[in-house]
Amino acid sequence: MLDVIETITAKRDGRALSDTAIRSLISAYARGLVPDYQMSAFLMAAFLKGLSTRETTALTDCMLQSGIVLDFSGISGAKVDKHSTGGVGDKISLVLAPMAAACQVRVPMISGRALGHTGGTLDKLESIPGFSTDVDLARMRQQLGDLGVVMLGQTEEIAPADGLLYALRDVTATVDFIPFITASIMSKKLAEGLDGLVLDVKTGRGAFMKTRAAARDLAEMLVLLGEKFGVSTVAWLTNMDTPLGFKIGNWLEVEESIDCLTGCGPADVVSLSVQLCGEMLVLAKRADTVKQGKEIAQESIDSGRAFESLLNLVAAQGGDVSVIEHPSKRKRTVEPEPVCAPDHARGFVSDLDAFQLGLAATEMGTGRFTKEDEVDPEAGIVLHKRPGDAVIPNEELATFYTRKRALREQFAQTIRNAYSFKAKAPAAGNILIDRLSAEGWTHRS
Ligand code: URA
After folding, report:
1. Hey, which residues does 118 pair with through a beta bridge?
2. What pLDDT is attached to residue 435?
3. Of the four, 41, 227, 401, 429, which is 20 to 30 A from 422 by CA?
4. Cα separation of 308 and 310, whole Å?
C-alpha cells in the first residue's frame, strides 16, 4: 500500500527511500492517483535533502517504465543519438543528425522545444515550411529504416511521467537539480532503444549549468545512468559562455546549419558537429577511433552526402525542400535592425555574453515565456562580430529581427551591452573542455 505522506516525511527528514517507495509514488502519480500538492511537497523535499545515485537510478527507471521502450532491433545497424543540455545558437542537432545518418548511423532523435533562454530543436525544424515533428511510432520506425534519421517531439507514449513531473518542476522551482535533470533526460533517451548516446553538457553563462563543477557532476550522473542501463554513453563538457556560430533564432539557425552541411559553416559549429559525429561513429562501431570517425564525418560534408541526407529528412517529414536548396527563397516578412558599436569600441571584441543574447532572442520571439506563447520562425539575431574580431566605433556588430517594433531600442541596447571590447585581441578559446566515458575523464583544458 502506498503511503504518500510516509514517503514525503522520510525524504523531508533526509532518509533514503527504498526503490519500492519511489516506484510506488511515481507510478501512482503517473496514473493520476497522487495529487499535485503532494507531489510538489515530495519534489521540494528531494531537492532540499538530495537523492543518492541509487535513488536517482530508481527514479529514472520508473519514469522510463511509465511509457513504452522502443525496440528497433529489427532495423539493421547501430542506433545512436545525441543530447544537448541546451545553449544559445546551439543548432548542432540539425547538422549532426543528418550527418551521422549519412555515415550509416541510425539516429532516432527525440528533441525538445525552447526552454528558458535556450533554443529548441523542434522549433527550429518547424521553421521549415511544412516540416512536421509530430511523427507517430509506426512512421518513426519506417523512416529510421528507410533514411536512417527521424527527428520528432516527445510522444505521449514515451516517458509520460517525465512530461507530468517536468510541468510540476517548472512551477515549483525544482528544475535545476541534477538527479531530476538526469532522470528527465535519461528516461526519454533510454526509451529510444539506443545502442549509444553522446551527450553535449554545456557549461558557462549561456548554459543551465553555469559552473564547470556542476556540469561535471551532471555529466558523471548522466554517463553513469546510461551505462547502468546498458547504453554506451560519452559526454563532452563544452563551453557556452558565448553563442555557437553567428546566428540565433529558429530559421536563422536552419540557414546556418545548411551552411555547415554545404561546407561553408562557422568553424565552431562545424568542429563541434564533426567531433560529436566522430564519437557517434565509434559508438556505432563504424569507426575504430574518434579521429577516424571525424574524418568520415568531414568526408560526408565534402562529398555532399550529409546535405543530401538533410534534404531527404526534410522531404520525408513534409518540409519544403526548395528553401533548403535555396534558403533565400524563404519569404522574409520582418525587417532587419542594425546594432552599431559604441564610441568606446576600439580594438577587438573581447567577450560576448550568450545569456544576455539568449534572453533578448527569446523576447524577440524565438522562444516562449508561457506554454501558450507562439514562437516566431523569423525572429533572432545575426552576429557580425564575435570575440577576437577587430572593431571600430559605429561598425555594425549585429542585426536583429523582431515583430516587436516598440522594443527595438531596448533590444539594440541589450545586444550592445552583451559585447565587451579591449585594445588587445583575446586568446582564442576552446569549445571542447573535457570528455567523460565509462573509462573516466580525459582533460582537454
Ligand atoms: N532537459 C530535460 O529534458 N529535462 C530537464 O530536466 C532539463 C533539461
Report:
1. 115
2. 98
3. 401
4. 5
Give the pLDDT score at 1: 59
In the block, residue with C-alpha cell 579591449: 422
Contact 63, 92 (CB under 8 A): no
CB 103 within 8 Å of CB 80: no
User: 108 by DSSP, 3-state: which?
Assistant: strand
**Residue 59 in contact with ligand 1 by CB distance below 6 A:** no
pLDDT (tens digit, 9 = 90+) per residue, 172-191? 999 889 999 999 999 999 99
- How confident is the prediction for the chain on average, in pLDDT? 96
Distance 166 CA to ligand 1 centre (A): 8
Angle among Cα 260, 235, 268 to the nearest 5 degrees reads 25
366 with 114: CB under 8 angstroms?
Answer: yes
Contact 33, 204 (CB under 8 A): no
| Residue 405 is a catalytic residue | no
Known catalytic residue at 117: no
Q: How far is CA 433 from CA 86, 200, 429, in A?
A: 16, 11, 10
Please report the pLDDT score of residue 210 as a whole number.
93
Number of C-beta neighbours around residue 424 at 10 A: 8
d(CA 152, CA 419): 35
Among 49, 9, 14, 43, which Cα is nearest to 26's?
43
Question: pLDDT tens digits, residue range 120-143?
Answer: 999 999 999 999 999 999 999 999
Ligand 1 close to Cβ of residue 181 (< 6 A)? yes
> Measured in Å, how far apart are the chain's first and last C-alpha atoms?
52
CA distance 429 to 271: 13
